[in-house]
Design brief:
The protein is of the alpha+beta class and 192 residues long. The protein has helices spanning 2-24, 28-53, 59-70, 94-102; strands spanning 78-82, 89-93, 108-124, 130-143, 149-170, 173-191.
Length: 192
């Protein structure tokens, strides 16, 4: 009897483990939904950067938008900054990047992101997290007080995307869902 109980327990554990693993695998439909969510978060970030970098945005509004933008990122994520003048690439934590963006020494700033697309498919990591990369191109223009364009560049950037399985409690029930967070934003090239 003990052997039979042990065998049933073993089979139950085996199937339970398989069921949990199956929940963590992404179906093509789920993957498509997650890809759309990741691209939507990148587009949201693009809008936030435009608002924060806009010199006519009130300080209090810019800080509110910074708080919202930070929520898109993994803890400890960094954003790269480059310049045609120095050729160096510097990395700042997300909040520091946004605060520096607010203080840029231009009277007017225009920042536009375009060609937003996946360059690497989501790959499953040993911990069950999926990781992918989205590439964007950023057009930056800085103007002086006379409205003269004094600096312009185009930067290609890679954004790491993390997709993690999370759980939340709703009405006393534990509900599982996939969450998308942005990671580091790496500068790939900067040109005029």
């Amino acid at each position: 009897m003990r052997k039979i109980t042990a065998i049933f327990a073993f089979i139950f554990c085996l199937f339970s483990g398989y069921a949990l693993k199956a929940q963590d695998d992404l179906s093509p439909e789920r993957k498509q939904a997650i890809d759309s969510l990741a691209l939507e978060k990148v587009r949201d970030l693009s809008k936030y950067i435009s608002i924060i970098g806009n010199k006519s945005t009130p300080w209090s509004e810019a800080n509110r938008v910074i708080d919202r933008a930070e929520e898109l990122f993994m803890q400890g994520a960094e954003m790269g900054v480059s310049s045609l003048f120095s050729g160096d690439i510097n990395y700042y934590n997300v909040r520091q990047y946004f605060e520096r963006l607010m203080r840029l020494n231009y009277d007017r700033v225009e920042i536009e992101w375009y060609k937003i697309e996946y360059v690497s498919d989501l790959q499953r990591q040993p911990d069950g997290t999926y990781v992918g990369v989205i590439t964007i191109f950023q057009k930056f223009k800085g103007y002086d007080k006379e409205g003269v364009l004094v600096y312009e560049d185009t930067t290609k950037k890679d954004i790491t995307v993390y997709v993690k399985r999370k759980e939340t409690q709703i009405g006393g029930r534990l509900i599982g869902f996939w969450d998308v967070l942005l990671g580091d934003i790496r500068v790939k090239e900067t040109r005029r």
